[in-house]
Amino acid sequence: MGYRLKTSATSLTVMLLLAAAACAPAQAPEAPARTLDTAARQGAWSAGVPEGWAIQPELVTPVRGLGGVVSSTDRVASEVGVEILRRGGNAFDAAVAVHFALAVVNPEAGNIGGGGFMVAVLPDGDAVALDFRERAPMSATRDMFLDAEGNVARASVVGHLASGVPGSVAGMWEIHQRYGSLPWSEVVEPAVNLADGIVVHERLASSLRAHEARLRQFPATAAAFLPDGRAPRVGDRYSQPDLRETLARIARDGRDGFYRGRTADLIVAEMERGGGIIEHRDLAGYEAVWRDPVSVSYRGHRVVSMPPSSSGGPTLGLILNILEGYDLAAADFLSPRHVHLYTEAARRAFVDRNIYLADPDFVDVPTEAMISAEHAAERRAEILPDRASPSATVEPGLGPPPAENEHTTHYSVMDAGGNAVAITTTINSLYGNRVTVAGAGFLLNNEMDDFTARPGVPNQFGLVQGAANAIEPGKRMLSAMTPTIVLDVDGRPKLVLGSPGGPTIISSVAQVISNMLDFGMTLPEAVAAPRLHHQHLPDVLRYEVDGLRPETVSALIAKGHALESRPGYQGDVTAIHVEGHGGFLGVADPRRGGAAVTLAERREVVQ
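Above: the chain sequence. Below: its structure as tokens.
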């Protein structure tokens, strides 16, 4: 049950400062029906996870409550969202507040200089999707990142030219205009107060410290994030006055506080100073777009996710549709058979993703065909039970390509009224293109690298994409963001989740869903479990360090798979599960140390 709390802006800021100081193919599904509340546990964790795996379920600290929950990659932002719920706001109000708070406390990915996607389910069961992905400036050209020899230049990743037209502020404005209940200024105000000054916590300090070198590349970025010439340390008071004024303009003037007036002037001046091409017409003309969500059935549940210009929903849908034809639980978690089947499904889903998907406003995208049961059956029939399919032999499966015409954050919010909101947002690489808008205090994105600069040449995430995703003026670049909501057999939201991680986002989301529905894991177990990733090219299955048993690796190599242990971990899943009795269970991935917070949690405020 929700409740209202009269809290001044000052006391909220104090509270947040204190908080800062988480294989034979089958014709039909073989697996027995399961639910996200399954009582018949499969023992998959203890049977399948290797000894020595670092992320044990007890490291995933769940929170429970009845009045609502926010799970994000930063505790301060989660506290902001829950405070908005306490004030009587709904999940959409809280989501907007979390977004702007992350722009302050999580500058590596939280943003007003980037874009993203929202998937939401309303109390009446309707699902909606909002595309606030960045767009190419109107002066962009197809070959703008190719040098004289036809090679892709570094300018697609670092510097002013790498930035697409930001969509985040327009997206938040659109969400609030349609679904918000509190005044706009009230949901942006906490971020303004945070930019006034916070006590630096470990997560922010370690990120700034680890990336000092890239933050020194541009003077305005160094001035904003390395005060006194160094990264702030834990316990330092850190203020961002330019960002505070930018956020104050947004709080006062709404979207016009960003896309017109002083902020727009500062963005254009920064572009002119650094050789970028975003103009006033690009900013004034930006619009977020409402789209029909992607929806597939998996083990009797409805999985609702993001359509293009995100590739997340269609690719997730195809992976799950292929896996639907196997009894994965009988294969045993992380056994050679389980890993083989997952890899072969992902290999086929990603080749279709890379060739066919793009901005649907520019390209005829075969989304419905890609997520159809018929297409999944055709792809499943190609999979050999005991042999890997070399990616060079796995062709796109939906006919001829369309005619030509890492860093991210996710947060999940649910409220007592039945609203479920999943938002994934990004500036692409850690700290985006490394350019801070002088006088405005925020980083710009490097999303132009997500276009196909040259067909057949991988981008910074190793994705080899097709001409459908070529650069065109005003076009949205293809994304892998996968905000997702799983509905139970009665059509009610049961699981809200998403992750950062470039193309690994899709893999992480698919595996958490499968871990729960196929192997009976709890949400903490499903989030803690080792993760895998295959994206067709490069033809290698990557797994988290110590995430597969040596004998499993040997068996997969014998099947013809190429494997590689990644040096670190994959993703940062923030998720909410509605438990059988109607309460909320929130989880934040320990891989990056976010936090889930419920209304049941109260922190003493000393003024």
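The radius of gyration is 23 Å.
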